Structures are given as C-alpha cells and as structure tokens.
C-alpha cells in the first residue's frame, strides 16, 4: 500500500470524498463500482470493481478459440485493463492498462476497424508494440463493460470482415451473458 499524504474526513452520512487527482490517475469515474476490503492492520482499501473480472477464465477460453480460428492476437478487456489474451505472451499484455484511445473507442459504443493510411492506435498505455485492428465494445444494459479486440503489430494491421463479425458476435454474446 502506498501513502498519498491526503487526509479526508468522513461526513455525518459516512461518505468520504476521493480526491480528483486520485480519481483521474486511477480512472475512477462517477458511477463506477468500488469494492471495499479491510486488512488485519485496520486499513480500509477501495478497489475498482470489474463486472468482467468474474469472467477471466471464460474470456480466456474465448480468446483461445478466436486465436485458433483466425490466427490473430486476441484480447478481451474490461474498461481499464486486459483480462484475457491469446496469441501473444500473456506477461506482455495481461492486466496492462488500456490506452486512452481504446477507452474512447469503447465509450463511442461503435465497432472500430483500422483502415490503411490511418495512424495505428495502441492497445495499452505507454506501449506501441500491439495496435488496435478491430475493436467491438461489450455492452450490457447500455453500459460499456469492456471490449473484444484483435490486435497486431503496426505493420500487420489487416482486419477483415471475418474479424469484424467475430468481434461483434463475441462482444454481443458477452454483453447478453452479463445481463443474465
């Protein structure tokens, strides 16, 4: 645990304000769920809660299937990080923070496919080895939960109709699965 030096008081209704700098750094937005933990030393820890976090194993199996079907590097993300990877070393991508470009695409709620001549968009913050080829946001009851992404190195972005349809189908499936 890292001390921030910031102290806040609890108000009469039991609320605590999380400072803007921390919300921005940790990408905590209004309405985001936070999970509350306690430690044996009396500490209280708030952690961003990911609805997709419960699907890590299932998402991993889906990624493996998509990778075997297309031969492409496949990633499933929640709103903040990569939760499943196939076709690339997991240590390079697992739990890495998604780029602001991917975050913007998810919020746009549209399927994205890289077009030749466009500048490649990175998958992860501070990482340009893997770039976005095809992105389909995972939507559940109108909320963005994450995305299904085909990625590639900047020189090998070549998404076609197959990747488009597969990403769209898997994202739709995961969104409906989360509603149930």
Structure description:
There is one protein chain. This protein has 180 residues and is of the alpha+beta class. 29% of the residues lie in helices and 24% in strands. The protein has five helices and seven strands. Strand 3 and strand 4 form a beta hairpin. It comes from Flintibacter hominis. One of its GO terms (molecular function) is identical protein binding. Residues 5-51 form the SpoVT-AbrB domain. This is AbrB/MazE/SpoVT family DNA-binding domain-containing protein.
> How many DSSP helices?
5
The pLDDT mean sits at: 89
CATH topology of the largest domain: Beta-Lactamase
What is the terminal separation in angstroms? Answer: 36 Å
Morphology: elongated
Instruction: Give the name of the CATH architecture of the largest domain.
Output: 2-Layer Sandwich
**What is the ordering of alpha helices and beta strands?**
HEEHEEHHEEEH
Notable traits:
Pemi-like Protein 1, Chain: D; 180 residues; alpha+beta; single chain; Beta-Lactamase; 5 helices; two-stranded antiparallel ribbon
């Amino acid at each position: 645990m890292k001390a921030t030096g910031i102290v806040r008081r609890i108000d009469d209704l039991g609320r605590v304000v999380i400072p803007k700098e921390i919300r921005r750094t940790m990408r905590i937005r209004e309405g985001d769920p936070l999970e509350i933990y306690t430690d044996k030393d009396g500490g209280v820890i708030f952690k961003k809660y990911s609805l997709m976090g419960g699907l890590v194993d299932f998402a991993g199996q889906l990624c493996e299937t998509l990778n075997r079907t297309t031969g492409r590097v496949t990633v499933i993300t929640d709103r903040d990080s990569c939760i499943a990877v196939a076709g690339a070393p997991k240590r390079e991508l697992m739990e890495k923070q998604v780029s602001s470009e991917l975050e913007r695409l998810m919020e746009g709620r549209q399927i994205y496919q890289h077009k030749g001549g466009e500048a490649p968009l990175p998958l992860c913050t501070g990482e340009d080895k893997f770039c976005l080829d095809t992105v389909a946001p995972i939507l559940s009851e109108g909320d963005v939960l994450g995305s299904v992404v085909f990625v590639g190195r900047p020189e090998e972005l070549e998404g076609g109709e197959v990747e488009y349809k597969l990403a769209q189908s898997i994202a739709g499936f995961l969104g409906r699965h989360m509603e149930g």
